[in-house]
C-alpha cells in the first residue's frame, strides 16, 4: 500500500478487455500514438480517425455597436454640459445686471447734498427723560458656592 503523501506518477486506467491501457488525458500529447477506436461490440461508438473540415461561423464583433452607443452617449453628455454652461452664463449675466443696478442706486444715493440750515429763531429746549433712574447697588466680591460661579 502506498503512503498518502507520495504522489503517483502513473495515471493509467485498467481495462477489462484485451486492449492496452491508455492515459486519462491526451491533451497536449502531440507525439502520442493514435488511439485505437473502441470496438463496436462494447456499445460505444467508434471515434473517426480523420476529422472533417469545419467552416467557421460568421461572427459579429460588438465593437461597431459599442462605438455607436459610445458616440451617442458622448453626444448626450456634451449636450448636457453645453446646456449647463449656458445656464451658468445666464445666471452670471443676471447677477452682473443686478449688481450694476445696485451700483447705480448707490451712486445716486451717494451724491453729496447740502445740509439744511438749522433754525436759530427757535431755541432748543431739552426735554426731561421719562425713563426711571438707575438704582446703584454694591458689588458682592465673595463666593457663595465654590462649584457655581455666577456673574451678576
In short:
This protein has one helix at 63-109.
Explain the overall architecture.
The chain has 152 residues and is mostly helical. Helix content is 31%, strand content 0%. It is built from one helix and no strands. It has one helix at 63-109. The longest helix is centred in the middle third of the chain and has 47 residues, at 63-109. The protein is elongated and about 135 Å long. The chain starts with 62 loop residues before the first helix and ends in a 43-residue tail after the last helix.
Percent of residues in helices:
25-40%
The assembly state of the depicted protein chains is single chain
Query: Which geometry do the CA atoms define?
Result: elongated
Mean pLDDT: 76
Relative strand content:
under 5%
* Overall SS class: mainly alpha
Region (Disordered): 1-49
Main location: cytoplasm
InterPro entries: TPX2_C, TPX2_fam
Biased composition (Polar residues): 1-20
Layout of secondary structure:
Elements: H1 63-109
Keywords:
mainly alpha; single chain; 1 helix; 152 residues
Amino acid at each position: 500500500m502506498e503512503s498518502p503523501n507520495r504522489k503517483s506518477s502513473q495515471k493509467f486506467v485498467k481495462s477489462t478487455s484485451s486492449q492496452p491501457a491508455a492515459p486519462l488525458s491526451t491533451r497536449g500529447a502531440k507525439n502520442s500514438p493514435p488511439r485505437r477506436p473502441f470496438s463496436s461490440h462494447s456499445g460505444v461508438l467508434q471515434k473517426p480517425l480523420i476529422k472533417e473540415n469545419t467552416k467557421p461561423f460568421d461572427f459579429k464583433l460588438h465593437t461597431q455597436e459599442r462605438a455607436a452607443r459610445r458616440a451617442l452617449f458622448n453626444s448626450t453628455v456634451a449636450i448636457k454640459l453645453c446646456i449647463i454652461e449656458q445656464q451658468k452664463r445666464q445666471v452670471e449675466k443676471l447677477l452682473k445686471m443686478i449688481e450694476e443696478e445696485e451700483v447705480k442706486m448707490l451712486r445716486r444715493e451717494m451724491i453729496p447734498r447740502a445740509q439744511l440750515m438749522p433754525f436759530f429763531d427757535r431755541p432748543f429746549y431739552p426735554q426731561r427723560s421719562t425713563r426711571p433712574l438707575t438704582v446703584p447697588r454694591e458689588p458682592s466680591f465673595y463666593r457663595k458656592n465654590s462649584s457655581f460661579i455666577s456673574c451678576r
